[in-house]
Amino acid sequence: MKGADMAKIYLGIDLGGTEVKLAVVDAYGNILEHASFQNSFNSVPEEVVAEIVRFSRNMKHFSEVSATGVGVAGDIDQQKGVVRFSPNLPRWKNTPLKKLLERELPGIISIDNDANAAAWGAYWLDAKGKVRNLICVTLGTGVGGGIICDGKLYRGATGTAGEIGHIPLNPDGPRCNCGSFGCIERYVGAAHLSSQAKELLKTRKHSKILTLSGGDPDAITPYILARAAESNDTIAINIWKTAGRQLGIVFAGIINFFNPEMIVLAGGVSKAGKLILDPIKETVRERAFEKPASICKIVISKYTQKLGVVGAAFLSR
User: What angle do CA 208, 212, 217 make, to 5 degrees?
Assistant: First the structure.
């Protein structure tokens, strides 16, 4: 980048199904200031946009922003800046997000899938430009994926490339919010991990999971499952092993097909660390071709909290 570009300030927005995060970012990926507010499944686009604008204008660096990028959980038309469809935000269908924002926010407005933004963030922060072919998988409310091919975001013919969460693991599995059946998201998304634990606890009353959740099955989260597994709770350990194996099956196919140098895991579920990473790696070793698997590093992002906003901020770079 040129000297003038290194002085630029960017606004990044990570618009997820449960939370909206905003950050002012410098050209090195440092967050100068940040804010967030809650989002919900039935949120109204115009109301969320109004909150984004309000929070953005309250930032002290707002007047210095040269470009704004937004990563949205859904199927995005990047050229038009339209949210075509979002499984976890059903009222956002065909929302002209770029048009709504460009009247209120400064500089170039770029809209992309949130997992693409996270992948772009992983490329700049985790890989630091040292690898050219990378997959980023976001594990949270849903499961997303972004592809870096030859050092550039790869979006595909219609901008929907990288929808790893909607690769079918079981064609006869449960119905997904996207309308299909048996998507990997329905097995390893945060909500499923919690509901799986609730189901198993119906026949097992003595578990560290219940202790950590205060005896309330509805309070179970992936964080509680991770803490329980670390305390050698067998139910929690098996949930993470199963989730890791299911992801490993998908990753083995991705490695054989795309031959990436790195797969970066991000999002709240990835905070389980080795509990999910070890079974992923074991399954990949069993199922992927030996040579491409041997050169592909599978890692958990060191920057998972900021990948989305930094990647979104850098969309115009």
Answer: 90
